[in-house]
Amino acid sequence: MGPPIFFGNAGATIPGIIAFWLTFYAWVLSELWLGWRRRSPQTASADDRGSRWAVVGGVWSSVALGIALASAARTFAITAGRPVFLIAGIALMIAGMVLRWAAIAILGRSFTVDVATTSGQDVIDRGPYRWVRHPSYSGSLLTVAGVLIACANPLAFIGLIPVLIAYAYRIHVEEQVLSQQLGEAYRAYVRRTRRLIPFLL
Questions:
Q1: Residues ≥6 apart with Cβ < 8 Å to 121
Q2: Fewest CB atoms within 10 A around its CB: which of 51, 110, 120, 199?
Q3: Is residue 122 assigned to a domain?
């Protein structure tokens, strides 16, 4: 048997392992809560085109694939300083959750897990929305990246492929809908912001 999944032999501590799993399950439960509580109301104009389930499938496929690759290909595991990767992974997971929930809080009732618009909906451009159009997605991607970094295995990053494809599709669908429904105000907002990373992407 190789070293325990994620943590390796060098300096892995029980508190570190517990911290990882507590963070991981807090993320899972928060996403389940969102899926249950933040669906679009019946009065909303919905045009999701399956993007909600693409994202759900992409996120969990990425996590499962990354963990599976790290477990199956342990000869590629990083053995030097593995506790640093665990700590960095946990920190990124927490940062991603904080960013995602801050973005959701700013949107308020406008945030739904499926693509939908409501009558009188405005373009939000405060907080992280000043710089990026989809900070909650940025937060989700940070959290997934944190899980993969905690694996301390370069092959785990192949797991990013499903979630990146899923969010690319979701953003394409969402921006089409918002451009149609919110008009020139949203199109002007698109011209002055980035999708996920300020000034870059």
A1: 110, 181, 182
A2: 120
A3: yes
